[in-house]
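## retry 2 of 3
previous attempt timed out at serialization; input unchanged, resubmitting
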Amino acid sequence: MTVLLCILAVFIIFIGIILIRTFSFKPKAQAAASEEEIKVDSDKTVKNLCELVKCKTVSYRDRSLEDEKEFRKLVSMLPALYPNVFKVCDFKEITDRALLFKWEGRSHERAAVMMAHYDVVPVDEDGWDKPAFDAIIEEGVIWGRGTLDTKVTMNAILCAADSLIEKGFVPKEDVYFAFSGGEEINADGAEKIVDYFEKNNINLSFVVDEGGAVVENVFPGVKSACGLIGIAEKGMMNVEFKVLSNGGHASAPKPNSPLVSLAKICTEIEDKPFKYHITAPVAKMFDTLGRHSSFVYRMIFANLWLFAPILNIICKKSGGELNALMRTTVAFTQAQGSSASNVIPPVATLTANIRLNPEDNIESALEKLKSDVKSKLQKPVTVNYNDTVDCSDSIKLTLINGMNPSRISETECPEYDKVALAVSSTWKGCIVSPYLMVQCSDSRHYGRVSDRVYRFSAMDLTSEERTTIHGNNERIRIECANKAVEFYLRLLSSC
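## retry succeeded, writing output
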């Protein structure tokens, strides 16, 4: 009886600790949003954005497919669209379509950087309801490739600066506007700008680039809109799995043909996901948004010391954005076999796009993949670091390209607070939170020179609108485009 009472007492204490931690897990106080009303010249915002969208600045890895005249057209029209910026700011073009503006402040000790890219991904015109480069306006919406990714940002930065300059505003510190014309193909423009900052010993206070946005229904149990500021981004690698055979006629197949082997590889890697990690950006997101969740989720996030394994199971089963925050993910995106339906392929390939958790890197991910393949097929596996190595009878893993996860930026600092306040003041009532960006951006290059790199796309987007980024029917509400300008008016005014 005494033992049972002791067990019961321990159990009650255990439950009590969980409940006390849950009820104490209350929302943190945020800096009071500014009540100042910011007026935006909507006509100018819309007109200028439409002019940028009409430039077919589509980037391709095969540069012969690009239309250089369209890129030059966009650059040549900037002085007319943003005349005050060109009156006051120093402007230079840097290697690989990089554009850099310097707006001198009263102090030159440090400098803020506002980033965007003006190249866009290709378009499948047949899948669009409106022409992709006509910038058609209907029912308060601008249609066109780049309206969201990220000509809206370039336009918002320059419109905001143009307006502030017209009013005689001078920033406290230098401000740079850094625009890349090759972000979508991982070109060197942004990296060359960072080289310029390093060479000229320019000390950066903070950097803002594309990333999170103001979104709803993205975090379990939270109904309010969330303004997500990326403080790090996952790495990325593309890996090819190649299996060889002697080929042959399909009428007499042998076991474990190349495509069968690849299918086994695919299912093995799917069944053995990478280990989950609650990294610093994710922990901060859980600690911020988890406090606004419903009771059950608050209990989980307040007691991750106990419930992390359960959260891991939920993530593995559901996949999607929450799972992507917790681990390195593998998406199989391309496959190739025989050119004829009745021929066993002599060579079959499978390509995976892998997004690296900050706790992983290219080397560790390749080692894990190699181990999974070897244990499943019981065959030798060779890892190549380019696609020109001759193949043997073994299975080949080839790293096509890759980049490690970015540096993690600080949040306990005035620079993060400055960005967060501009978000909460522009979108009243939203919960501002750090997060881990699962995509890649040009801002990863800035980790060399700053630990205050923040990734925020100044828009409030529905889930349907987010699917049009890199997809068909990309478009933006005029109200959303105006809010982007308002955000940068607030942020630049604080610089």
